[in-house]
Amino acid sequence: MIVELNNITKIYTDAEVPAVKDVSFGVQDGEILTLLGPSGCGKTTLLRVIAGLERPDSGEVIMQGKRMASNNCWVPPEDRGVGMVFQDYALFPHLSVRDNISFGLKNKNKAKNAEKVQEMIELVGLENHADKNPADLSGGQQQRVALARALVTDPILVLLDEPFSNLDMNLREKMRREVVRILRKSETPAVFVTHDQEEALSISDKIVVMNNGQLEQKGTPREIYESPIACFVATFVGQSNILHGVLGPKGENIETDLGTFTYNYQHNKQPGEDVIISIRPDGFELVEDGPIQGTIKEIAYKGGVVDLIIELTNKEFYQDLLVHIHPKYRVEVGDKVSFKLLPHFLTMIGECKPAI
To answer: Is the pTM of this model over 0.85?
Structure first.
């Protein structure tokens, strides 16, 4: 384990509640982990705790088996061997790309330093821009300089705080792939901070979902999306239909007003007990004479997918249903449609609480 956070709590002066409360997770060698959550959820505080820019009020930070922070231990940022890429890149405007990258090198051997800097310039693909100043570079190029500067010292970990937020949508997507490629090639583990769910799902090996300073769920992108264990995760990471139901007599299905669905994971629930379930809008398939029937109330075309709001024919079901369909289907408001639920797209979740 490269980094371990054990029961981290951080309370800022005059704050009514902790910014972070009793949070624990680890980062494996070569792993890209993303801290995902809304503004003010504590994700940037955790990043700063790892970097040594904030000292936790309780808990401990361990890096490569060495304690960096605890009740009786504190290692300053410069001695932690961590690289950081800030949201605004924090490049020196009067220095060239080459000099920005070399700024943090402590080795007095100039030849080795020059060799290392050139290696980083080639890694991030800026060979033709090495002597330019930041003002002469695009936003994506500046970001690559900031990443190269973080990597040139061979850190044990790189921390990236909302690194794509200043880029337009097309460049953001390109830079996600580029930064992940660079991190993979350098074999450097990384922790990202973002509030963008799509970004987290696309770049991460593991995701830690934060809300109100607490850890809601941690897991792979597929686990987070397909098997949310909390109402907040189900509704914040993508969209979801939240339904109430009852666990069937043998605990092998869930009975809802929408229908009865097979479900083999009881989560310590007993037959006959009330449960809350999440069904992703991707979990429905448009079919003729399907068991779920209704009328289209709203349509939102989004390019690769079409969002439908369905008013169900079943009058006992009092909420509308959000369904995704492929754009090959041509439908209109008022059309009557029917669906079936695909296997494994239903999951049992915990009690629903306010998102913020």
So the answer is: yes
